[in-house]
Specification:
Blueprint: H1 2-14, H2 23-32, H3 48-51, E1 56-61, H4 67-83, E2 86-89, H5 96-108, E3 113-117, H6 126-134, E4 138-146, E5 158-162, H7 164-178, E6 184-189, H8 196-210, E7 215-220, H9 226-240, E8 246-249, H10 255-264, E9 270-274, H11 278-286, E10 290-295, H12 298-313, E11 327-329, H13 350-358
Length: 362
């Protein structure tokens, strides 16, 4: 039996069909996130005005210098104005000393909750967070951790998390479809930022699992080195391998340093990324190197983060996943983002009426 079985098995392996990229799933993912976002309530309706009447919230962004963080903070400010409670948006320039000062100020001035927003790494501030909580202050994070792959640390009271894995999959799926399963991608990101890992891994793993002929390489470029190290790193990679057809920075603000590298290397590589940063959407509208960008309404993010925090302060069931859909911008719809583009145009405004109704304001 063995003499008959083994040759048969060898023949079966020899003539087995080659693995192919899963194009149908990739196209379905792209189609789903090319539709205008709809509002899905993150939890039951509640009387936000009544339960927040004697409470106040303190928001500490990663840095106000980043328009991304500033736009999320504005969403918090707008939500607080709708409901009618005190909220303070702390000024910081990506400086741990400034983050610590913000925590100390919130505790000293009797705020009920501190939210660390938009990538600020709470792991650097555990002693200060622990001290704040010992004084009765709730400490949370918004738009910082992945909803499925990262656990909310025990030193936080809660967190409103983003589906970064899906964003990474969309980026990878797009490149896969555009190249008919022949991606050769350079992926870049700053490893010190909390959301980088799920985004980076989702891109790399999606291509590994779904595209047998795709190739990738990854370069870590810390945020503080973007202006000096991104362009030479990309330029050197493109010159070393002219077949690279996609550059996939996990955050689209890196694009300003990548475009010159592509041009100098005389490469046909395209950029696909995440964040929907206005100047990058403007680059897409005015040029052809930035091909696709996955964005989300940051005003919506701020309102959703406020919703999760209010539920925590009001003793309601926790909400740990932001209800902010990822949305694809391309040449075909980038004009809807405005000229110049903004962080909120192009997504529709269903969230405004949705949250107003959810909070009992209409």
């Amino acid at each position: 039996m063995k003499k008959l079985f083994l040759p048969a098995l060898g023949a079966a392996l020899m003539f087995a069909p080659a693995a192919h990229a899963d194009m149908d799933a990739a196209k379905a993912l792209i189609e789903k996130h090319s539709k205008l976002p709809t509002f899905e309530a993150p939890g039951p309706a509640f009387d936000a005005k009544a339960c927040m009447a004697d409470k106040k919230m303190f928001v500490i962004p990663l840095t106000n210098a980043n328009p991304f963080n500033a736009a999320i903070s504005q969403g918090f400010v707008d939500a607080a104005a709708m409901v009618g409670f005190e909220l303070r948006d702390w000024e910081t320039q990506m400086d741990p000393a400034g983050w610590i000062q913000g925590i100390n100020t919130a505790v000293a001035e009797g705020f009920d909750l501190i939210d660390m927003q938009g990538g600020l790494p709470p792991e650097f501030l555990v002693p200060q967070i622990t001290e704040a909580r010992s004084n009765g202050v709730k400490v949370t994070a918004t738009h910082n951790y992945d909803a499925t792959t990262q656990q909310i640390p025990e030193f936080l009271d809660s967190a409103a998390n983003t589906d970064y894995v899906t964003v990474g999959k969309i980026i990878a799926a797009w490149a896969m479809v555009q190249t008919d399963g022949k991606v050769n991608a350079l992926v870049l990101g700053p490893d010190e930022i909390t959301p980088t890992a799920p985004l980076r891994d989702a891109i790399l793993n999606y291509l590994k699992d779904n595209c047998p002929d795709c190739k990738t390489q990854y370069i870590n470029v810390p945020v503080n080195d973007w202006a000096t190290k991104t362009q030479p790193a990309v330029q050197n990679a493109l010159l070393a391998d002219p077949t690279i057809n996609y550059v996939l920075p996990v955050y689209d603000s890196m694009s300003q340093f990548i475009v010159p590298a592509i041009q100098i290397a005389n490469s046909d590589a395209k950029i696909v990324s995440y964040n929907g940063t206005p100047f990058v959407l403007d680059m897409m509208r005015d040029g052809d190197i930035v091909e696709m960008n996955v964005g989300e309404s940051l005003g919506w993010v701020g309102m959703a983060g406020t919703d999760a925090n209010m539920r925590l302060l009001c003793g309601l069931d926790p909400v740990t996943v932001l209800n902010t859909p990822a949305f694809i911008f391309t040449d075909e719809n980038v004009a809807t983002a405005g000229n110049p583009a903004t962080f909120n145009d192009g997504y529709g405004d269903v969230h405004k009426a949705g949250f107003a109704k959810l909070w009992g304001l209409e």
